[in-house]
Amino acid sequence: MSGKGHIYKRCGCTVVENGTRKQLGKGCPQLKRPDGAWNPRHGTWTFAISVEGERGSRKQIVRGGYDSQREAQAAMDELKGKAARGIDVASRLTVGQYLREWIGSKKDIKRNTLRSYTGHIDRYWDPHLGHLRLADLRVQHVATVFAAIDSHNELCRRGKAIRPVGPASVQRIRATLRTALSDALRQGLITTNPAALVKLPSAKRPKGLVWTDDRVERWQAEVDVLVAKGMRLKKARAAVSTPSKVMVWRPDQLGTFLDSASADPLYALWHLYAFRGLRRGEACGLEWPEVDLAGGTITIVRQRISIGGVVHEDTPKSDAGERTIALDAGTVMALKAHRKQQLADRLAAGGEWVESGKVFTTRDGRPLDPEHVTDRFYDLCVDAGVPPIRLHDLRHGAASLMLAAGVSMKTVQETLGHSNIALTANTYTSVYPEVAQAAAEAAAALVPRAAR
């Protein structure tokens, strides 16, 4: 419980006594007028209150710097309410101290998530809010961090800074603090979660676009201009922006890529990505005991990911990520051919062969570095002469192929390993123009019309 408390004014005026300068505080004669009323032009408002601390002891809390008596009263009333609900209002735990303790206790999250949380705390939350007492954290404090991010992005737009922070990243930065404060809320360290109350613009997922002939023509024209100026083709392709961050090949473009990559040692990997929509780390972590060529299935139980240049192996992103995926006959044939070539490579390597058990390896059996897989994919795109997509966009394309073939959304969700069907429907599907045209014709044909 807390005492009644009292409110008064104090200032920063000082006086020298016996050669030592000391602050007058609430004893400054300028704080009151001759009639005893408070001087509105001098000092700020402060409240003092006695609260119950640990083991029943009493502790005096003094908070100041308020512009008005009303503000000081409201702050004291809020503190009383927290004390009445069992919150340790006398705690000096700062936001920075709490976040460090919190991140140090997280033992049940993925390495990538831990790295993301730590990065957000290091770059945003600790530098801006670390000095504040956790119990004093307010929505306006959190909002100032996002205001600083907005200011940085404005500098980027003016060319005075680099690496703007996108809307999706802003949401993830907020999610880190919101998750940490949710734990503080459950522990009774705070009574509200300020991060959950801050309003931010919604981060729209980039819309997947198909590489139509018009889009390819416009993009290729820009590339040709740069090449004509002496820029190398690969660099020119990377320099020209695509219509969307997420681009999807048409079936004929995918066929061109696969035909061009058919002699590549990792052809089966590209084939598996394109038709079954695996994540990069899932394919790199796949081992032969999880491949059933007779039954036509693979089972995903691990992923191989690169974090800060260091490769780790871990379980899939979620429970839904652990799944068994059916394979079409063409994919089974590709994996059989790959298995045969891998056995030949093993014999050729002799004692130099590394027994990793992985389906996709280097020529001497070592597991693949996921980053090198991405680099190789971009090189093959250049060789094939197809418009650029990200390796992850093959996953979008696989979903679109399945839906165009009439596969149910539920089956697509389970094949991709999503935890909910909304993510599949909203993010990983792009409608091919010819499919959309056929759907429009089919809908129009349902309406009977009189002959004209």
Helix content: 40-55%
**Which stretches of 5+ consecutive residues score pLDDT under 50?**
none
CATH homology group of the largest domain: Intergrase catalytic core
> What is the general shape?
elongated
Overall number of structural domains:
3
N-to-C span: 87 Å
User: What fold name stands as the CATH topology of the largest domain?
Assistant: hpI Integrase, Chain A
What structural category arises from helix and sheet content?
alpha+beta
User: What is the number of beta strands?
Assistant: 11
Query: On the 0-100 scale, what is the average pLDDT?
Result: 89
Describe the strand arrangement of the main beta sheet, using strand numbers: 2-1-3-4
Beta-strand fraction estimate? 5-15%
Rg, Å, rounded: 31 Å
Task: Tell me the CATH architecture of the largest domain.
Answer: Orthogonal Bundle
**Helix-strand pattern:** EEEEHHHHHHEHHEHHHEEEEEHHHHHH
Number of helices: 17
Query: The biggest beta sheet, please?
Result: 4 strands, antiparallel
Features:
11 strands; DNA polymerase, domain 1; 452 residues; 3 domains; CB; three-stranded antiparallel beta sheet; Tyrosine_recombinase_XerCD; 13% strand; four-stranded antiparallel beta sheet; DNA-binding; hpI Integrase, Chain A; alpha+beta
